[in-house]
C-alpha cells in the first residue's frame, strides 16, 4: 500500500494508521488525541502493525505545505479491513484531520 499525502494545513501532522471497527468519525479521544491501544475487541483503536514502529505508532511527520509518501508491505494483513489514517497531535482529530481507508485486496 502506498500513501501520498499533502499537508494543506498550517500545523505539522504526525501521521498514524490505525485499524478499528468504529466509524472513522467516532474514535475515542483523551486529552485531545485518539486513544490507540495494542489490543483487540470492539471499540478499540489499534495500531496497524504492518509497519514496524513503536508507540506513538507514527508513520512520519509532515510539515505544513509539505508532501509525505510511504509504502507499506501488507503481507499477512487481512484481505479486507477498515483503517483510518489521521494526524494525532492534540486537537487534530477533532478538527477533521483524518480519513477512512477501505482496504480490499
Structure description:
This protein has 105 residues and is an all-beta fold. It is 0% helix and 43% strand. The protein is built from no helices and 9 strands. The chain has strands spanning 2-6, 13-20, 29-30, 33-34, 45-47, 58-62, 67-71, 80-87, 98-104. Strands 2, 5, 6, 8 and 9 form a 5-stranded antiparallel β-sheet that branches. Strands 1-7 form a two-stranded antiparallel sheet. A hairpin with a 2-residue loop joins strand 3 (29-30) and strand 4. The model has no long low-confidence stretch (mean pLDDT 82).
Give me a quick take on this structure:
By secondary structure, this protein is mainly β.
Number of helices: 0
Give the low-confidence spans.
none
- Mean pLDDT, rounded to whole units? 82
Q: Indicate the overall shape.
A: globular
Q: What's the story with the biggest beta sheet?
A: 5 strands, antiparallel
Percent helix, as a range, is under 10%
N/C terminus separation: 10 Å
**Beta-strand proportion:** 35-45%
Query: Structural class of the helices, strands and pairings?
Result: mainly beta
Number of strands: 9
Radius of gyration: 13 Å
N-to-C SSE string, H for helix and E for strand: EEEEEEEEE
Amino acid at each position: 500500500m502506498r500513501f501520498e499525502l499533502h499537508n494543506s494545513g498550517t500545523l505539522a501532522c504526525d501521521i498514524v494508521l490505525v485499524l478499528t471497527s468504529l466509524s472513522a468519525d467516532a474514535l475515542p479521544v483523551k486529552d485531545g488525541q485518539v486513544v490507540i491501544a495494542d489490543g483487540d475487541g470492539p471499540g478499540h483503536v489499534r495500531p496497524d502493525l504492518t509497519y514496524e514502529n513503536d508507540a506513538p505508532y507514527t508513520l512520519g511527520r509532515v510539515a505544513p505545505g509539505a508532501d509525505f509518501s510511504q509504502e507499506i508491505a501488507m503481507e499477512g494483513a487481512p484481505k479486507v479491513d477498515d483503517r483510518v489514517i489521521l494526524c494525532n497531535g492534540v486537537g487534530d482529530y477533532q478538527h477533521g484531520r483524518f480519513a477512512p481507508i477501505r482496504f480490499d485486496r
